[in-house]
Amino acid sequence: MASRPLYLGPRLKRLRRELGLTQQAMADELGISPSYIALIERNQRPLTADLLIRLARAYKLDMADLAADDRDDYARRLSDSLRDPIFADIDLPALEVADVAASFPGVTEALLRLYGAWQREQEALADQRNAGSGSSASDPVGEARRFVAARRNYFPTIDSKAEELAVEIDKAGGPQEWLRARSVRVRFLPPDVMMDAIRRYDRHNEQLLIDDTLSPSSRTWQLVQHIAYTALRTEISTVIRGESFASQTAGNLVRRALAGYAAAALLMPYDRFARAVDARRYDIEALSGLFGTSFEQVAHRLTTLNRPGQERVPFFFIRVDAAGNVSKRLDGAGFPFAAHGGGCPLWSVHDTFRTPGKVVTQWLELPDGQRFFSLARAVTSGGGGFDRPSTTRSIALACAAEHAPRLVYGAGVDPKAAVATPIGVTCRLCHRVACTARAEPPIGREILPDDYRRAAEPFSFAES
């Protein structure tokens, strides 16, 4: 029985994109023409056995995985999607569905992606209407944050292995030399050659390519991230083994978070970093200089010092942009940050954009009397050239007020006597009456009319 031709267009296209290659670059490495690559990716030519072997050898891939035919899977997934009741009144013969999946894989992928996005939006709407449902499928970011928070942002197996590996890297003379000893050549290339990537691993030539416009600390960070994804792959996989995530995106976000954790542990090994933290009294800028890392990397690492018996000050970490969007959050220190809606505008994390490079400290008091100490600074990433955009965000750490004297930023101040700024979790949950910064009325309070009297605050509340 003759085997059917192997059409792997979408799979080859995904592989090429993952490797960061143009059709021309892949064609050169495989010894074929770019137009032939284009025909294969459009499923207008089958993938021959000879080309399959060349692909496996060039990019060190498992041939069985590479040769797996997507057509049956595409047909099944498309058929499953089209059984949704929304399509019930449309005649969709199985043979036609299979033919679309086999002949038009690009259209099939687009339909599946669109249907998946529609499903997630439906789930999000359902979650809003039924907040108690507990579904996290529509919130992969929240699911990833809960995964990290449930483990107190401390992963002992990763820290332990990273400490051992950090010693090896130091002995080798640094990450670049350590990689070179393992036959991985590091090259720093201009952005136009990098094709919008800041790090790319060329598996064919065993080269790690880094954007040459990155700052020294960012270059080092990209080097150790590659080491984390390769040399610490087993430890990362062990942490997530057996976990069931609601979506692939959530799983990918957790994996990314663990790789970042591992990279920080390589640059700032637990014992050495913890001793330096005590000696420098949590001076983030001093620690940055000592370990050759950025302000944000040190601030993030401070949230991970939770080894039993060797804990340091517990911190809450947040990164926000000028519009108030939260791009990173690490829960800790019992700081009740709002899960939905904007944060309190009275918190200085929103003011640092006016004083870039300056650490701004603030004592905070919540409506229930809890007091915290926070430090924040605006940091800039990207750029590196006249026409390259940069992004400025604000990084903030907050700890319980009683820990502030251990920090260089809170030295000499009695936490109980410090003048604190009254803030709320979010306007909808804050019942402070005298707040001119309020954006919304709190839930459960009646608003008085302002026909005859308008207070300085945006809203006046009834007594009950």
Automatic annotation (TrEMBL):
A Pfam family (short name) is: ScfRs
Gene Ontology cellular component terms for the protein in this record? cytosol
Q: Which residues form a coiled coil?
A: none
Positions of the HTH cro/C1-type domain? 12-66
Q: Name one GO molecular function term.
A: DNA binding
Domain of life from the UniProt record: Bacteria
The protein's UniProt keywords, in alphabetical order, are:
DNA-binding, Transcription, Transcription regulation
Name the family the entry cites. Belongs to the short-chain fatty acyl-CoA assimilation regulator (ScfR) family.
| Protein name from the UniProt record | HTH cro/C1-type domain-containing protein
Where does this protein come from, organism-wise? Novosphingobium hassiacum
Organismal lineage = Bacteria, Pseudomonadati, Pseudomonadota, Alphaproteobacteria, Sphingomonadales
